[in-house]
């Protein structure tokens, strides 16, 4: 690891034979990125950090205040150190300046004889440029070696060992569930100290020690979410840009490996489709279900279950990889809500069995939160926003009754397909009257029943381009309040009175009586259901 240069390294170069470090000896480990000759006292805005400054002192001469100001500016600008040629313009370094430098571990180095600054800068700049080329070459070699390892390794620990051996630093990985692993392993007191320190700043002194600990970290993101964080620390040197680049390459490799593992795990789940199909059809016994869950999800403690169906537009256009990533994303969201998930693809949909692991009384709120997160996410499949239609069936306490939840989820999707105004109703329990309408539509001629009540109004609107149906629906929704109805329809009362009079003629003056009103409201919803069904059939016909 010679991709960085410290002040200590430079002190071994030519022209640094007769030098004296009079202050900031603890800072000789500082990195040097460039060398400047400075003969002015206002330098604050001219530095980028990590510069080694050469000076004869001509700018301040015997003016101590200017000298102090310059040193403070260098410290604030995070310069690496200051080299001063003693003799021509400066003969003595005030104790006050030595104290300031020592306090900030800022090295001040004296040349006790005249030295050629031009040759020093040429030498060090050449060294820096060569090291930069070497760093690029080393980084490429590291990346190639890491990529080769990805083809053969089976566990992410091997990657952590690889970066540790290469950089000679402490490697730490912290997962989203707060699990932390150290490479190499450390004793418990050291472990506790590091866990405390990595939650704070990047670089700071180790307690009860003169050592500075340097920390670098990068998140490991999977499917748009932070899955873990990779951290390296060193107590022997300051971590450099090269360390950061190596960390970046390693984090990317870890993300690829972890995603591959998750993908393989998901593919194994797909192989269990046949058994899950039997469960959804009510063919599995309680003992068989317990054995299956104990083998595949041993940590799961079921407290009821529910089935959810996800319907994606143009399902056939998605590749297996697309669908697998979608299921991974779906699983990541709902596992945080206290569910274990089993998934299968069935009849152009993805069916999820949610095994509840928390209080059954909160399952619906947690499910709603997960659905909201899913629909608000930026997940994309084939660069098309994947906004699935989601239907959630009945919650069942007995796992052998999962087929009832599955059938309820199917019915929820069926109703959603035919009633766009209820697209936000994801739960079977929330569909209420539409469940009855759907049931009647499958077993009776619902259109005939609707016309029995509403045909005069429908015919009138078609013939005269009227708005009686809209008025009727709003009037019923306002519980017969004429003032509220007129306000919602944006019409004057006289217009409303005329329409109500027309409705009384067509439906009878008793249309607001309790029993008849309930029947009319039911038929209005049924009519909307039938109209949506007709539109759906027309769209499907046009597509075919």
UniProtKB/TrEMBL annotation:
<dbReference type="Pfam" id="PF07905">
    <property type="entry name" value="PucR"/>
</dbReference>
<dbReference type="InterPro" id="IPR042070">
    <property type="entry name" value="PucR_C-HTH_sf"/>
</dbReference>
<dbReference type="Pfam" id="PF13556">
    <property type="entry name" value="HTH_30"/>
</dbReference>
<feature type="domain" description="Purine catabolism PurC-like">
    <location>
        <begin position="9"/>
        <end position="127"/>
    </location>
</feature>
<dbReference type="InterPro" id="IPR025736">
    <property type="entry name" value="PucR_C-HTH_dom"/>
</dbReference>
<feature type="domain" description="PucR C-terminal helix-turn-helix">
    <location>
        <begin position="468"/>
        <end position="523"/>
    </location>
</feature>
<dbReference type="InterPro" id="IPR051448">
    <property type="entry name" value="CdaR-like_regulators"/>
</dbReference>
<dbReference type="InterPro" id="IPR012914">
    <property type="entry name" value="PucR_dom"/>
</dbReference>
<protein>
    <submittedName>
        <fullName>PucR family transcriptional regulator ligand-binding domain-containing protein</fullName>
    </submittedName>
</protein>
């Amino acid at each position: 690891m010679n991709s960085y240069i410290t002040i200590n390294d430079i002190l071994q170069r030519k022209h640094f034979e007769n030098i004296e470090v009079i202050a900031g000896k603890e800072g000789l480990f500082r990195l040097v990125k460039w060398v400047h000759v400075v003969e002015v006292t206002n330098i604050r805005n001219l530095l980028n950090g990590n510069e080694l400054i050469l000076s004869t002192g001509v700018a301040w001469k015997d003016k101590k205040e200017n000298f102090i100001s310059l040193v403070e500016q260098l410290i604030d600008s995070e310069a690496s150190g200051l080299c001063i040629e003693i003799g021509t313009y400066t003969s003595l370094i005030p104790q006050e300046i030595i104290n300031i430098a020592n306090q900030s571990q800022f090295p001040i180095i004296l040349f006790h004889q005249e030295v050629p600054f031009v040759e020093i800068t040429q030498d060090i700049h050449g060294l820096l440029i060569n090291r930069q080329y070497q760093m690029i070459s080393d980084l490429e070699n590291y990346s190639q070696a890491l990529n080769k390892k990805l083809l053969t390794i089976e566990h992410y620990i091997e990657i952590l060992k690889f970066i540790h051996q290469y950089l000679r630093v402490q490697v730490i990985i912290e997962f989203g569930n707060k699990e932390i692993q150290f490479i190499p392993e450390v004793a418990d007191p050291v472990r506790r100290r590091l866990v405390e320190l990595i939650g704070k700043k990047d670089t700071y002194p180790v307690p009860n020690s003169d050592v500075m600990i340097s920390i670098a970290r990068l998140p490991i993101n999977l499917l748009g979410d932070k899955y873990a964080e990779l951290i390296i620390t060193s107590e022997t040197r300051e971590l450099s840009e090269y360390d950061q680049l190596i960390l970046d390459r390693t984090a990317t490799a870890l993300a690829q490996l972890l995603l591959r593992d998750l993908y393989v795990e998901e593919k194994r789940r797909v192989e269990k489709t046949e058994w899950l199909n039997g469960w959804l059809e009510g063919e599995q016994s309680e003992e068989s279900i317990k054995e299956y869950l104990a083998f595949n999800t041993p940590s799961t403690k079921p407290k009821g279950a529910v089935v959810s169906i996800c319907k994606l537009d143009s399902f056939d256009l998605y590749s297996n990889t697309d669908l697998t990533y979608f299921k991974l994303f779906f699983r990541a969201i709902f596992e945080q809500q206290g569910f274990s998930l089993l998934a299968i693809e069935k009849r152009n949909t993805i069916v999820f069995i949610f095994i509840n692991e928390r209080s059954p009384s909160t399952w619906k709120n947690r499910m709603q939160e997960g659905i909201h997160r899913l629909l608000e996410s930026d997940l994309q499949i084939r660069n098309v926003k994947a906004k699935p239609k989601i239907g959630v069936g009945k919650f069942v306490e007995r796992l052998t009754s999962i087929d009832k939840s599955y059938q309820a989820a199917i019915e929820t999707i069926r109703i959603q397909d035919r009633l766009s105004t209820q697209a936000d109703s994801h739960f079977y329990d929330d569909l209420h009257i539409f469940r009855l309408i759907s049931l009647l539509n499958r077993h009776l001629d619902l259109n005939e029943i609707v016309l029995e009540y509403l045909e005069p109004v429908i015919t009138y609107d078609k013939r005269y381009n009227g708005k009686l149906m809209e008025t009727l629906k709003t009037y019923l929704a306002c519980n017969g309040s004429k003032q509220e109805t007129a306000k919602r329809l944006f019409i004057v009362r006289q217009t409303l009175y005329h329409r109500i009079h027309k409705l009384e003629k067509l439906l009878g003056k008793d249309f607001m009586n309790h029993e008849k009103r309930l029947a009319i409201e039911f038929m209005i919803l049924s009519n909307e259901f039938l109209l949506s069904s007709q539109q759906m059939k027309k769209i499907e016909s046009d597509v075919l």
